[in-house]
Amino acid sequence: MDQRPIGVFDSGVGGLTVVREIMDQLPNEEIIYFGDTARVPYGSKSKETVTKYSKQIIRFLMTKNIKAIIIACNTASSNSLEEVQRTFDIPIIGVVEPGAVMASRTTKNNRIGIIGTEATIRSKSYENAIKLHNKDIQTFSLSCPLFVPLAEEGWTNNEVAYLVAKKYLEYFHEKQIDTLVLGCTHYPLLKDVIQEVAGLNVSLINPALEVAKNLKELLLLRDGLRDSSESPKHSFYVSDNTTKFEQIAAIALKKSIPHAIKIDIERY
Does 144 participate in catalysis according to the annotation? Predict the structure, then answer.
């Protein structure tokens, strides 16, 4: 057994969708979350910059004596996962491969849509991962950069969100997709609007569900599950604006959280 916490990070609030799945599937585990709210969004930044930010955050999380790290950010997973896995001696799980597996298993007509940040779509990480599982699948990809600031603002289910989703997703109307990958961890916060626009015949893939399963398998394999009669104590850190983060976190997790702590991530 391993009583140490799990580190999770994202460019902002999006990774909380992954935290929620971990809490559901591994309710005994303690989580330390970092949201890089001062530097969000990552999707418009270069691979080098995203990798630099990821390394800084991992160095910070490792000061907390964690046993594993989840990169709960598709942009960082797409652009930096292999580099940070080589750099740090700790298990690190990204979100792309689990999401690709889930999408490949879900589609019935082998036509999958992928939405994500500019950097994630540019990397073709989902397309490549899906092809490895089934070369017959056709993929159709689109960057939807405005979804991230909508999620960060908490505008996840209003007229503005609907109009933005309608404008973006019209691209898929003639593509006959039956599966749509939410290739950014912010996007599940807008899933109701996205589902309404995409249609009930399109299955939405939230990679967070599969990420939590992968984490559970990893901890079981390493005999690393937390064994304690005490309830887990979660911690939340951000690089800016704790109040807004706490408000959105309460909605995303459907529970209040301890006060978030602002840190200077540039020190790491």
Answer: no
